[in-house]
Amino acid sequence: MAKIIDGKQVAAEVRLNLKNEVQEFIAAGNRAPQLTAILIGNDPASQTYVNNKMKAAQEIGINSCTKHLPSSISEDELLKIIDELNENQSVDAILVQLPVPDHINERKICNAVKYEKDVDGFNEINVGRLALDMETIVPCTPLGVRQLLKYYNIETKGKNAVVVGRSKNVSLPIAMMLHTDKSHHDRSMDATVTICHRYTPRDELKRYCQLADIIVTATGIPGIIQADMVKPGACVIDIGITRIPIEGTDKTKLVGDVDFEAVKDIAGFITPVPGGVGPMTVAMLMKTTVKIAKNLAFKKL
Amino acid sequence: MAKIIDGKQVAAEVRLNLKNEVQEFIAAGNRAPQLTAILIGNDPASQTYVNNKMKAAQEIGINSCTKHLPSSISEDELLKIIDELNENQSVDAILVQLPVPDHINERKICNAVKYEKDVDGFNEINVGRLALDMETIVPCTPLGVRQLLKYYNIETKGKNAVVVGRSKNVSLPIAMMLHTDKSHHDRSMDATVTICHRYTPRDELKRYCQLADIIVTATGIPGIIQADMVKPGACVIDIGITRIPIEGTDKTKLVGDVDFEAVKDIAGFITPVPGGVGPMTVAMLMKTTVKIAKNLAFKKL
Hints:
The structure is a homodimer. Chain A is about 40% helix and about 15% strand. By secondary structure, chain A is α/β, with parallel strands linked by helices. Chain A has a six-stranded parallel beta sheet, with helices on both faces. In chain A, α6 packs across α10 (about 275-300). The interface of A and B includes residues 131, 134, 157, 176 and 196 of A.
């Protein structure tokens, strides 16, 4: 029976530590860290995400602000707003809630956020620096996965890891951190890493997973990771999150990529969905906001 | 018996095509593409590398120039020279021959070369763009590997690939191109990719290699890839290059990472060392120089 990785508890600890850190930072004569979110249009999911982030910020003592823009906004107008925030000295961290409307180039927007303020780590410079093992801003979900592995003392050096999925914001940064040289950067983990994706045949996926000490899955395909794919004692991190109907009712529930009930009897560690990686994403966003505020404050000195 | 991948021949074809392309470019009223190399100090290997590149450039009709600087040059002086080249409109492509002397920060120098002129693709912006499947400049050796796979019609989509090594200039870009989504970028290859390195236990390395349809090795450890590690029919690309003594003589020879004589009886395709990937690196440097010259010329229009 696997140990259940309690993302809620770890996230609560992270947030409590940040609250103290922010108090000390302010007591030392600095203004409170500041986070600005840009929310475009009226997608209910995006609104919920942004609200949760803003609520977490307030609890920690981070000043937060949401710029809610109409979905009709032009790319140029949006770029102008981002540029003002880039230059505004009372703004530390900037996030643009994705997705943006179809008429706006998402990559252009991600690159427009000044890399020093880019709390999501999506700017091409931050991505390049991550790939080069340089000091940078790492996206929040990958950072949360790393923190969970660290918290539960999951050994990574020389171990076999599989990352299922190849998204640029989640899977790729995780694969990057897992395989790189720990002597070059604190966040690196020295694992042997296999990246699987939609063109990996299912029997090959099974084979690679069976070799893995660590499986990190982020596909949004419920049940893609089954019990017979998991090595006894392996650590299974589930980033997938899908809403499915509960049979025989008109209700829905959230499930991950992993067949949790069966896999938990085989794995050594497993994250539940919800309550695993999810809560860590917001906590890491807060951690990065505080880091950015400190960087900018020290730069000004 | 494997088909021997003839890097010399493919490189010669690439260079011939480039020669024609350059002639047409000039005939259309443009000045010849220009490549400037910065060579610091008197390392004989570095001098040979730079000379080979300059010679290849001349044969193709690329204007070339080597700035030979003393190893005593300061970082600031070097940065100033790079900046002048960045601004100089008669310079297209810039390369700094690595390694630089110990008192100079290599990463700072790589980032100082303007990303549009960064023929080696080492600037952090180009690395980030590669990771994000954006239009960018890809380092020459990885580009050469991709070209060889393409030339010999080696299927990559859904195939198992192993990259042995995790260097930022060679292995990482190869792993990146091999695993990414071909529908996003022409250079992407949709393979399942495993990245192995110094902390991959040798028996695990063997296991991953045995599963691989494509093995790309870049370790500089002669004989690390043995015949019993290779699946019959696999494609084996050897980027390692090590000079070793010839037994019983005072002569030396170049060898790769692969036990060529034994592996060639099992593999489907194999690159020799020398004469495999090596010649492709210089050819791809020329290809990128021409690409940069065209980009800059069209930008000026």
